[in-house]
Amino acid sequence: KSHNIALLGPKGDEEEPFEWDSFLKKTNYIPAPRHFFDQATSSNVSFKAGMRLEAIDQNQKDILCPATVKAVKGRL
């Protein structure tokens, strides 16, 4: 929200735009504590828009997929 980025929800989630708070409430998932992400800052992450990466498929963890960085917004 703070970076004004529209998120796509997981496959099967039809809520648009995707809202984390609503998703967490529907699924009873518990978010990772904020301090898990404190080490990554925009100053030590060298991703750039247009970079090509390999990303893990979130539904099948043993599958790698090609991905493209669309934007770098710093710490989200």
UniProtKB/TrEMBL annotation:
InterPro entries hit by this protein: Mbt (IPR004092)
Swiss-Prot/TrEMBL MBT repeat ranges: 18-76
A GO CC term assigned to this protein in UniProt: nucleus
Gene3D superfamilies given in the database record: 2.30.30.140
Any one GO biological process: regulation of DNA-templated transcription
Protein name in the entry: Uncharacterized protein
Organism of provenance: Pristionchus entomophagus
